[in-house]
Specification:
Length: about 220
Amino acid sequence: MEWRGKSILVDTAPELRQQAIRSHIRRVDAILYTHSHADHIFGLDDVRRFNEMQGGDLPVFGRPQVLDDLRRAFRYAFIETQLGGGKPRLALTPLEGDRLEWGGLTIEAIPVLHGNQEVLAFRFGSFAYVTDLSVLPPESRERLRGLDTLILDALRWEPHPTHFSIEEALAVVENLRPRQAYFTHMAHTVSHADAERRLPAHARLAYDGLAFTVPED
């Protein structure tokens, strides 16, 4: 996400390098983590390039347990090694409350459930990113009202124990009524063309390279 010349990255997917090249990402000023599953963290080493270009450590925010998982999975990045080792430079900051003030931007951390695991959704003004969930608690649902744009987990048409199905995601969209919703984290069984025909105009499938502008509050 870009905001007033700053770029915030949510999670570091394994294909981060390819995504950054394709989308011409020139800087990353902070990283937010939703949770520490492999498909959300294993591209972390590729932020080294942004350290080099920007000349400093990258702020990284996440729940304490998520940061502990990063320290284990990327141990080499947090221990003393010989010079010239080439590793990411990261400033880990525990995110313990439900709100983060960063560079003049208020970021809301909203807990949802991915099976029985807590995952964080993030709200930036009238935009929210909500991935990997099977339960949206009532109090978290209320914090997602009044959105312009919502990105929401929708794995497949069939039910799944730890992800929303497309039908479940549609029900949430109809309840929250954002101006526009985009579904993400789809399985390979979802036909993009078929799903687009079946979905209402205000709920579309996300795709690689999708970009949009959200009005500031």
